[in-house]
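Form P-L/3: holo structure prediction, ligand nicotinamide-adenine-dinucleotide.
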Amino acid sequence: MRISIIGSGYVGTTIAACFADMGHEVVNVDVDAEIVNTINSGRSPIHEPGLDELLENHSGEALTATTDYDAVLDTEVTFLALPTPAREDGSIDTSIIEAAAETLGETLQAKDGDHVVTTKSTVIPTTTSETLAPILEAASGKTLGEDLHVAMNPEFLREGTAVDDFLDPDKIVLGTDSDAARKTLHDVFEPLIAETGAPVVDTGIEEAEMIKYANNGFLAAKVSLINDIGNICKEYGVDAYEVADAIGLDDRISARFLRSGLGWGGSCFPKDTAAIRAAAREQGYEPLMLDAATEINDRQPARLLSLLDRHVDVADERVAVLGLSFKPGTDDIRNSRAIPVIEGLQARGATVVAYDPVAADNMRKQFPEIEYVDSPEAALDSASAALVVTDWPEITALDAEFDAMSTPVVVDGRRAIDRRDGIVYEGLTW
Ligand code: NAD
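OUTPUT (holo model):
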């Protein structure tokens, strides 16, 4: 099939490369010429395992990128993979996806025949049918349900494992009220369904929109619940990981997402829990559980810093921050727990020395004043304390390197480091 994708960020680039790998002909449209050039040169504009290889194989052949919306005219279906960022009050800002829908609609005026537009971005229920569909219909001059069809196909990939997640999904959710759109989407995903046997959830547009928020809200709340329990464990000197291992054996609970620690960050859990809480309030419902999940998450960095305060006054001292990305495997620092940790250290007058294998350049834009080093050893050298923020393999492997610190205080937010003689070790929940 011929597929166009508007937006070539973490989602758009990954799905474009994966669709090309599935045998489709794909064009990525993005307003950023640098991103377009990078994709066309066969390289990935983001750090994502496996993506460079896919782009190297398919760029210039099954996959091309362009800044020109006219490229959609040769395709049967367009996916909108555009940012839906949070406003100040947590609600989603749909202005970017609305503007893209407008441009797409104007472009589709020149297309004879049917076109399917599918929302990939995470949007609050009714956004596709009540906001985007009318924009597309008015701008294109086409008629909804006749030669213009809309659908919603939420994306569940996780940064750091995005390619594997997309190519081996837990589920494929196809939300639409149009038989034509449903058939097109089944054709798009057929190679993946045949290869993996992934279950397909055929549903309505609003259900598809809500499934994404329900999924992320549930997982965010699960992590916050184990962090709540972990914080109680710490007060009693109980090892929260032994507790989690035991409760995870209960198949009603399951073992995944039970690693208590610094909490969640990234572009999805914080934004999506905030958006669905704001939307619920707008409907007159108080989402108490999701409110509490957010509050517990917001408190974990302060708890980490208070454990540091028990052992060392860091004013004018070098403090190593190990890991900057919101989780291993990505260079994404959006809502990373490293941000409040660095702010807390700065408020204490510490000299922050940061290490991350891939995310330092992104964090430098936010904190240009702190020192970034190329190795954990350089960060630990003469430091009075180390805070473990992201459990990258090169950080979990550290051991003798802590001996180069001036006072070996290690406060671990991710259960990355083994407790041993010779270091003063504090685990956040163990
Ligand atoms: P992103 O910020 O990484 O990428 C968005 C891209 O859109 C950028 O390259 C930008 O240049 C481009 N863009 C902006 N305006 C444009 C326009 N008018 N026309 C064409 N291109 C334009 O965003 P992302 O992380 O890929 O997220 C996209 C959506 O997918 C969001 O709704 C997000 O919530 C959702 N989502 C993200 C993830 C994730 O892990 N990042 C997972 C699932 C769902």
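COMMENT: DSSP finds 15 helices and 14 strands in the chain.
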